[in-house]
Every structure is written in C-alpha cells, then in structure tokens.
Amino acid sequence: MSTLVTKLERVVKRHEEIQALLADHPEPGSADYTKLTREYSEMSPIVEEMRAFQKLVTDLEDAQSLVESEDDAEMRAMAEEEARELKEEIDSTEQRMKVLLLPRDEADSRNAILEIRPGTGGDEAGLFAGDLLGMYRRFAEIQGWKFEVLEMSENDVGGLKEVSARISGTNVFAGLKFESGVHRVQRVPVTESGGRIHTSAATVAVLPEAEEVDVEIRAEDIRIDTMRASGAGGQHVNTTDSAVRITHLPTGIIVTQSQKSQHRNRDEAMRVLRARLYEKARDEADAERAADRKGQIGSGDRSERIRTYNYPQGRVSDHRINLTLHKLDRIIAGDSLGEVIEALTTEDQAARLAELGE
Predict the structure, then answer these.
(1) What does the alpha-carbon distance between residue 47 and residue 38 come to, in Å, rounded to a whole number?
(2) I need a labelling partner for 316 at 20 to 30 A (CA). Which of 47, 67, 159, 237 fits?
(3) Where is average pLDDT lowest: 55-69, 78-92, 116-130, 296-310?
(4) In whole angstroms, what is the distance from residue 108 CA to residue 208 CA?
(5) What are the residues facing 113 on neighbouring strands?
(6) Are 73 and 81 in contact (CB under 8 A)?
(7) Helix (H) or strand (E) holding 202
(8) Residue 323 pLDDT > 90, yes or no?
(9) How far apart are the C-alpha atoms of 277 and 291, rounded to whole Å?
(10) Please, what sign has the CA dihedral across residues 49, 106, 129, 264?
(11) Helices 73-100, 337-355: crossing angle, 10 deg rounding
(12) Tens of pLDDT along 84-128?
C-alpha cells in the first residue's frame, strides 16, 4: 500500500505542476501545450480515484471510531456494517488505481488504421473478410467512433480482396490493438452445394495512426505512381487516372488509394504509409514489448491465429485467453464484440500487474 500511495502522490504532484504550467502557458496552440494537455488529461482519472480513495479511508476511520466508542448495540452494528462496505470499496478503488498506474502504451490514445485481407479459403475467405469489416464498423459505431473506408476492392461474389479503414475517436487503438492476427471461420459457404463445413481465414491488422512528427518520410525514399482507378470486377470507376500508388523504397512497403480525388488519394496513402512505418519502428525498437505480449495474450503478429468463429456451434473462441462465448451472431454483428475485447484487456492488465508484483 505504501508503494502505491507514494506513486499516487507523485502523480498528484505532477498533475498540479502541469495545471500551473497550462495556466501560465503563452501559446495554447503550440505542440508543447498540446503535449501538456494530453498528459494532464491522462493523469486526471488517477487523481480523481486518489481523492475518492482518501475520502473512503477517512470515512472508514470515522466508522471504526464509532464501533469502538458506541455503547448502543444497534448503532455499533450499523457502524460495523458501514466499515465492512467501506473496506470492500477501498479494495476495489485500490485495484482501479493500480490499473491506472500501469505503464501506458503511448499509442493507446491514437486513432487506428484497420486493414483486413482474406487468407486461405478462396471466395469464402473474401466473404468472411467482409463480415469482419461489418463487425468492426458496427463496433466503432457503438463506441461513438468515426469509421471511414480508405480503400476497398471486392471479388466477383461480393466478398473482399482487401480493405483499409481509418477509425477515429477516443482511445481507438487501445480498444482494437488486440484484434491483429488471423481470424478463422468454420461454416458452410453459400457456394457449397453439399453442405460441407469449410475452414477459411482472414488477416486483420490494427495500426496506430502516426503523425508527421512521428515518422520522417524523405521525398527520395518514396516513388509515387498514378494509375487508372478500377472498381469491382475491373470496371473503371471514372475516366481519370485517379489511383495513387506509393512505394517506400527502403522497406518495400506499397500503399494504394483509388478514391475519386487524386489529391486525397495521395494524402490518405501517406497516412497509411506513416502508420505502417510507425508500427514497424515500434516493433523493432521494442522487441521486449513484443515478447511480453507474446507471453500474455498474443504478440500482435499478423500470422498468429487468434480467434475462431464456429457457425455450426454458434461459438466464438479466442485462443489467447481460452475464452469461448456462445453468441456468435451478436459478436459478428459487432454488438457483443466488446465482451471479447474487455476480456482481452482485463487479462492483459492482470498479467502486467502480476509482473509488477502488485
């Protein structure tokens, strides 16, 4: 407890320092001001919990004093009951504070780039990729996030060849970062006449969106090509060469955008390229983080099979935490995906708390 209180007191002190700095800061629009504002807002929930905790401790001391001094049996019993309830509330508040004090991934508060590509399974994998897109779109809507498709190409049966989307809002990457990996589906495809169950897969990647200051992309390191845009089945969307392909020469990363506006295509392609380079740099610079995640709920590696959607049994199983829920329809619709994400987040927090010896 003393270690926890010491950490909390440091946070409260820093919170007060930032408050004073913000009050005296001459340039509200500067990068420094924005950084301080973000730090202040991230600390505020911890400070609020600390104040609530201090009040609970004071209330408990008052209740215990009443138990010791009260002669009336009924009043003493009421004070004892209040003390029990306060102890339980103190325990839960203490646990919340520990979670809030866990080292924070600085990317958690960022927007995210979502990429989905079909894997093994042919047309059925493309249809499943489309189902996953719908699931994440609906989940984003529930969270109050903005969901914007950046690039999408379809196959001949209405499934997807690939799709990328930008999701913006509060703590988007924190909410979706454990979705990266291989998602597997077991069901009877609509194209299957014999009623046999097929296994298909799609790959999901969730990348934290990067700002220009996070990743330096030199002009000489990229090649920009313009191409004629085409829609599903290779049909031309318009008669202008509006598609843009950017190749990052040092890494070989290629990003394509084919919306109507060529200017917007270039901007969006650069946005996706920055996100991919930023995530690549994060992984390379912090191999220890990746190792820690592998020991907890998964490495985030796109080749790792993380979840199975079994339609005949109506269940979804997340293999990283041995979670099985028999509500496939609600999860694939996006309505109950939050239950899976919450379980993954809770498991991650528990593992990190155990590492800290809390």
Answers:
(1) 15
(2) 159
(3) 296-310
(4) 8
(5) 166, 207
(6) no
(7) strand 198-208
(8) yes
(9) 20
(10) positive
(11) 90
(12) 999 999 888 888 888 777 777 778 888 999 999 999 888 899 999
